[in-house]
């Protein structure tokens, strides 16, 4: 019996030792796999929903933010602000939302998809984009009502469309556009391609397309200035990074880059 007890004890000890080695090896292996696939500390992908008119400025600022945050990748979804709000309402995942007007940001807040208080970071106003050399001789907003002109505008639910409608009301001049586009870049593209003689876009869009279109400023645009608010999205996958990006846009670097193509200052 004594010999049998000793044999059992020895077997148990060997099993216990083997189990300890096995359990000790396993965490080491899984930690190695995890560190290989996980992003670097502070890294990850930041998703920004931004109005189409912010494309050029935000592309530059995104690169600057990445350079200051090693391991971070910033991706953008540029569309009309109303379309972006609809995406958020439908459950699309994003970290930051930058709207081209207060109305669509207010809707996002009311719909419960925004975290915290939005802040206005820039302003913008309309200009007329025309073909190079302005062959139709368009000089004023009223000129857009002349017969025979193919004029393109944004749809009314889009911020640039709402601003266009506001100018129409203040001037008493009603446009008869050949098409209404879902974002301002589509309007600009139609002028660039020759499908339209003129299009109502933002000053910043016409400036960014210098060399491809000419810009005609008109004083009535000052009565339809759009404010651009930015905010962190509720339940943002990268909430900490989203806050940092939000602050970056509101900071000196953001203001400087936005001013380059004609955005006015925010609050």
UniProtKB/TrEMBL annotation:
| InterPro entries assigned | ModA, ModA/WtpA
What SUPFAM superfamilies does this protein map onto? Periplasmic binding protein-like II
Question: Signal: is it a keyword of this entry?
Answer: yes
CDD domains the record matches: PBP2_ModA_like_1 (cd13538)
Q: Which domain of life is it from?
A: Bacteria
Keywords of the record: Metal-binding, Signal
Q: Name one Pfam family in it.
A: SBP_bac_11
What PANTHER family would the database entry show? Answer: MOLYBDATE-BINDING PERIPLASMIC PROTEIN (PTHR30632), SULFATE-BINDING PROTEIN (PTHR30632:SF0)
Q: Which family does it belong to?
A: Belongs to the bacterial solute-binding protein ModA family.
Name the chain's protein: Molybdate ABC transporter substrate-binding protein
The species this protein was found in: Amycolatopsis albidoflavus
Task: Name the gene that codes for it.
Answer: modA
